[in-house]
Specification:
By secondary structure, the protein is mainly alpha-helical. The protein folds into 2 domains: 2-176, C8orf32 fold, CATH 3.10.620; 218-266, no CATH class. 59% of the residues lie in helices and 7% in strands. The protein is built from 12 helices and 6 strands. The protein has helices spanning 2-10, 19-30, 36-53, 60-74, 92-98, 103-116, 154-165, 181-198, 202-215, 220-232, 236-249, 256-266; strands at 78-79, 100-101, 121-124, 131-134, 142-144, 150-152. It has a two-stranded parallel sheet. Strands 3-4 form a two-stranded antiparallel sheet. Strand 3 and strand 4 form a beta hairpin. The longest helix has 18 residues, at 36-53. The protein is globular and about 70 Å long. It comes from Aphanothece sacrum FPU1.
């Protein structure tokens, strides 16, 4: 039922996808007791509280400062620096309950509030760090939600990139292109996928891959990884099907020989 609802939500024109609802749907798969409408109402309440605080003239910087003051100072939202790979950081209900998350989930809270106060903002996938920015021409500012809504300029972003990669990296135009709603949900789920992989929670990882494939059907890497998971849990026929399909989609894949050897081993 949840998979069907999730599929209906994400398989519509991208601008119509309700990211919060979709994220709460896959969270309900993990936390069966959660009330989706309750969490959507909590986001509405946050937005209405911010609306009351907005100045008469709402310049982008002023709006961002009001959201930051309410979200981070009053409500105490923060990035989980101490336990970044806690799976709770990737479930929207837990992020709202605990006031704690990782860059992408905290960004979703921020974007959902911005949407509800009619302040256009978009997510951007700068390498190594997810951030958001106002969706106005030539505004030139960025918001690092993981760091208490820190307001950054182009030079600050390049300094962050240098810190992450230990080399000078120019902020190229495609780094700040808006991330689509489907891509945003895909990234959130991919984070969870690798968290569960590292924790060797293969059944949960399999469920997450199924959700990713609802967003991106026939994605070769996800099909391969699902096949490898089936191998791990000894679902031999399903493993064979997925690994053969992967090789059919990507016959010249770099790991093709290794996959063929694995198929021979299974058969």
């Amino acid at each position: 039922m949840i998979m069907q609802q999730f599929s209906l939500e994400i398989n519509q024109p991208d601008h119509k996808i309700n990211v919060a609802k979709a994220a709460l749907l896959y969270a309900k798969d993990e936390y069966g007791y959660l009330d989706i409408e309750d969490y959507l109402n909590r986001l509405e309440t946050m937005a209405s509280q911010i609306k009351k605080r907005l100045p008469g003239t709402s310049y982008p910087l002023k709006v961002i400062k009001v959201i930051n003051q309410y979200l981070f100072e009053q409500l105490g939202f923060q990035g989980n620096q101490n336990d970044y790979y806690d799976p709770r950081n990737s479930y929207l209900n837990q992020v709202i309950d605990r006031g704690m998350g990782i860059p992408i989930t905290l960004s979703v809270v921020y974007l959902e509030i911005a949407k509800r106060i009619n302040f256009p903002m978009v997510g951007i996938g700068i390498p190594g760090h997810f951030m958001i920015r106002p969706d106005f021409k030539d505004v030139g500012i960025f918001v690092d939600v993981f760091n208490q809504g820190e307001i950054l300029f182009k030079e600050d972003c390049e300094a962050k990139l240098k810190e992450i990669y230990q080399q000078n990296i120019e902020l190229e135009p495609h780094f700040i292109e808006p991330v689509s709603n489907q891509q945003l949900l895909g990234r959130m789920l991919t984070n969870l996928k690798y968290i569960y992989l590292n924790r060797q929670e293969y059944v949960k990882m399999l469920r997450i891959i199924e959700l990713i494939l609802l967003i991106f059907p026939n994605h070769p890497i996800e099909i391969r990884d699902r096949g490898l998971l089936y191998y791990q849990i000894e679902e031999w026929q399903k493993a064979i099907h997925d690994l053969q399909l992967y090789l059919k989609i990507l016959p010249t894949a770099q790991d093709g020989d290794a996959i063929r050897q694995l198929l021979q081993k299974i058969e």
